[in-house]
Design goal:
This is Trehalose-6-phosphate synthase. The chain has about 450 residues and is α/β, with parallel strands linked by helices. Helices cover about 45% and strands about 20% of the residues. It binds 6-O-phosphono-alpha-D-glucopyranose (G6P).
């Protein structure tokens, strides 16, 4: 039921996302330790001090914090039933919607939209409704609400029904599937998703390509976008933050350790990803293996430093992929390694300081996703790189639209083409590499996170 005037909440700016800026873990003394996240969204939103961030309790620690009434200022964590959350987040968001937008469905991961899918879909609706209700409670009259991502695609429509006075925006951080692929979803679900999003006043995407794909879905499936405005804001890297952070003592220390691991005088190919299928890590490793096989002069002379941080490990398909990455890295090392040279150095423990150290050390950065909303690694490496770094970049990453001129562009499915690009990147003359890196850094930081968020707020209110 719509709340009546005067009983509305006090928040003027609200953000909603599945993952919030803080999480809680049980401490030894029986208390709860708060861990603040350092992701891009956290730094982007810090430009607006007075805001309320509505997010889900994700683990036992978060749920316990909600039960004990422990909160951070400006954050409201929703204690959604754990099974409902698991069905919505694992069962729909990360196994269906993520797969559709990244075009990952293929044998043996064929979609099967039977009764189990319908049951999970009902949980996805419940979970979205919990967000819509909380936002409706907290928002002041005429407040601005920005909803994030595919987890919460139904929230704009649900919130609009509860509170017609709000300005509602939705931002998509993933690609958007082409219409013929999107239509793999059952018709009623496809429609519900589009209409849910169109409940917003304004929808925004990371690139024109994803925005156009969404518009095309609306045109073909429900006959248009019903007057909802659609915009593009290409999130960039935060140059000031990265340059400062990359020279702190913890990064210097890890840089020393990495140099020791790599060995004197060797070139370094770096990749940093969450481990999941869209990142195309296995094919990247195969391309590197092909380089060692077909260009023996690189043996003993190059090391591939691959950071692959496990993600969404509740799902078997993500776990299997994580294991496959480790297997392929090991097989390359046993095939080509020598007593003094490890061809692939794989690290799986998430460590931001070590990622920055790797960016500084890199001669080549490999960013080869099958599809990616943006990919900030491609934008961050050129900013931090000490001596300039050649960028091998998939044409299917959103970042391609801004970085194509100075990257070595690859078709992510083509391991041979990727191998050739790696070879060209390793051979690139130092002055050319430095020039390209400068231009990549400028293009990749054109819209830093704070401005990215403020631009959206202005456009939404305009
Ligand atoms: C992508 C999504 C984000 C998500 C992130 C990490 O970037 O667009 O919404 O937070 O992946 O995934 P996770 O499932 O760990 O939140």
């Amino acid at each position: 039921m719509a709340s009546t005037h005067g009983t509305h909440g006090a928040a003027e700016v609200l953000v909603a996302s599945n993952r919030g800026p803080v999480s809680y873990v049980a401490a030894q003394d029986g208390g709860l330790d708060a861990r603040r996240g350092g992701g891009g969204l956290v730094s982007a939103l810090s430009v607006v001090e007075d805001k309320l961030w509505v997010c889900a309790a994700l683990g036992d620690g978060d749920r316990e914090a909600v039960r004990r009434g422990i909160t951070e200022p400006g954050v409201r964590m929703l204690d959604i039933d754990a099974d409902v959350h698991a069905d919505a987040y694992n069962g729909i968001a990360n196994s269906v919607l993520w797969f559709v937008h990244h075009m990952l469905y293929q044998t043996p991961f064929e979609p099967s939209f039977g009764p189990e899918f319908r049951r999970r879909w009902a949980a996805y609706e419940t979970y979205n409704r919990a967000f819509a209700r909380a936002l409706a409670e907290e928002a002041a009259d005429g407040a601005t609400v920005v909803v994030q991502d595919y987890h919460l695609a139904l929230v704009p429509g649900m919130l609009r029904e509860l509170r017609a006075d709000l300005r509602i925006g939705h931002f998509t951080h993933t690609p958007w599937a082409p219409v013929d692929y999107f239509r793999m979803l059952p018709d009623d679900i496809a429609e519900q998703l589009l209409r849910g999003m169109l409940g917003a006043d304004r929808l925004a995407f990371l690139t024109r390509r994803w925005a156009d794909a969404f518009t095309e879905c609306c045109t073909r499936i429900i006959g248009g976008t019903s007057g909802t405005r659609i915009g593009v804001h290409g999130l960039g890297a935060d140059a000031d933050f990265l340059r400062e952070r990359a020279h702190r003592p913890d990064v210097e220390e890890r840089l020393g350790a990495l140099r020791d691991q790599v060995g004197e005088g060797r070139k370094v190919v770096v990749r940093v990803d969450r481990t999941e299928l869209s990142k195309n890590i296995v094919r990247g490793l195969r391309a590197y293996e092909l380089l060692l096989e077909t260009r023996p002069r690189w043996r003993e002379k190059v090391v591939h430093v691959a950071f692959a941080y496990p993600s969404r490990q509740d799902l078997a398909v993500y776990r299997d992929y994580t294991a496959e990455v480790a297997r392929v890295a090991e097989s390359i090392n046993s095939r080509f390694g020598t007593p003094g040279w490890t061809p692939v150095v794989l690290h799986v423990k998430d460590d931001f300081a070590r990622s920055l150290a790797a960016y500084r050390l890199a001669d080549v950065a490999l960013v080869n996703p099958i599809r990616d909303g943006m990919n900030l690694v491609a934008k961050e490496v050129p900013v931090v790189s000490d001596r300039g770094c050649a960028l091998v970049l998939s044409r299917e990453a959103g970042a391609y639209e801004e970085l194509a001129d100075d990257a070595l562009v690859v078709n992510p499915y083509d391991a041979t083409g990727t191998c050739e690009a790696l070879g060209a990147a390793l051979d690139m003359a130092e002055d050319e590499r430095a020039e390209r890196t400068k231009r990549l850094a400028a293009a990749g930081t054109a819209l830093p996170p704070g401005r990215w968020f403020l631009e959206q707020l202005e456009a939404l209110r305009g």
